[in-house]
């Protein structure tokens, strides 16, 4: 059986399903505006494209499929279909909650025998890894410049218990999925720059969520301070919470 490219497959589905629904609309068999029709249809396209990629990843000798996007598209499409049919409530804004799918993907890849090696980093010296779980809460822990990339990251920094040098310290974290919690003392100034496709950003009273591209926040006296923290985060999906005490 011929394996179409993802683009050809999506276009074909839009023509088939879109044409069928619009035909029913024109015949008066269903009542729906055009924009409502496409809003109803696109989850089915996502779902079928995801299933296609999963089947190709499993059965195709040339491995045309993609495990991760196949899993993600089929689950997201299935949940959106369930929402359209009234079984559950699920919108694009809920996609952030699906980040554990990446862990499922890693497990499947490992069991399939073709997965990458998983590394767990638990200290600030690691520069990269697939999965990172970092908690810095020890008394008087040393704050240093940091530049890390990790596929899936869970960071918990308590700067109220740290030794922060009298200079600007830069913390760069990047990857696919980031869950970051930070506690900063009131007398330390900081700036935050984030880049994400989907995000939930909470910095004190500053909030930004949904389809977030970029977010920027700078505390009031940052420019004049000597002891300060410069956070730079770049993730596909980011859940960030920063509090001052």
Helix/strand class: alpha/beta
Can you tell me the number of structural domains? 2
Which whole number gives the mean pLDDT?
78
User: What low-confidence regions span 5 or more consecutive residues with pLDDT below 50?
Assistant: 1-7, 114-126
Number of strands: 11
- Count of DSSP-assigned helices: 4
Radius of gyration of CA atoms, rounded to a whole number: 23 Å
Instruction: Give, in order, the helices and strands.
Output: HHHHEEEEEEEEEEE
Span from first to last CA? 62 Å
Which bin fits the share of residues in helices? 25-40%
The biggest sheet, with number of strands, parallel, antiparallel or mixed sense and barrel status, is: 9 strands, mixed
Binned strand content: 25-35%
Shape: elongated
Report on this model:
This protein folds into two domains: 6-90, no CATH class; 120-244, no CATH class. It contains four helices and eleven strands. Residues 1-7 and 114-126 have low confidence and may be disordered. Strands 1, 2, 4, 6, 7, 8, 9, 10 and 11 form a nine-stranded mixed β-sheet that branches. The chain starts with 5 loop residues before the first helix and ends with a strand. The protein has helices at residues 6-26, 34-59, 67-84, 101-112, and strands at residues 120-121, 128-136, 141-142, 146-158, 162-163, 168-184, 189-195, 198-203, 206-210, 214-218, 228-244. With 245 residues, it is of the alpha/beta class.
């Amino acid at each position: 059986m011929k394996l179409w490219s993802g683009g050809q497959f999506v276009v074909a589905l839009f023509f088939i399903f879109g044409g069928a629904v619009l035909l029913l609309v024109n015949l008066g068999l269903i009542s729906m505006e055009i924009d409502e029709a496409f809003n109803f249809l696109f989850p089915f396209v996502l779902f079928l494209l995801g299933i296609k990629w999963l089947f190709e990843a499993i059965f195709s000798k040339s491995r045309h499929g993609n495990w991760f996007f196949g899993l993600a598209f089929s689950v997201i499409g299935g949940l959106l279909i369930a929402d359209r049919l009234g079984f559950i409530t699920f919108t694009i804004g809920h996609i952030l909650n699906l980040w554990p799918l990446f862990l499922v993907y890693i497990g499947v890849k490992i069991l399939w025998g073709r997965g990458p090696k998983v590394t767990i980093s638990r200290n600030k010296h690691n520069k990269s890894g697939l999965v990172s779980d970092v908690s810095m809460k020890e008394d008087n822990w040393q704050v240093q410049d940091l530049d890390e990339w990790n596929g899936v990251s869970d960071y918990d920094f308590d700067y109220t218990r740290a030794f922060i040098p009298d200079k600007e310290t830069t913390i760069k974290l990047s990857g696919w999925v980031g869950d970051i919690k930070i506690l900063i003392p009131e007398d330390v100034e900081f700036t935050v720059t984030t880049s994400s496709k989907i995000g939930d950003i909470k910095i004190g009273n500053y909030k930004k969520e949904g389809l977030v591209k970029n977010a920027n926040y700078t505390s009031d006296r940052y420019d004049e301070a000597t002891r300060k923290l410069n956070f730079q985060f770049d993730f596909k999906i980011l859940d960030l919470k920063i509090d001052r005490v």
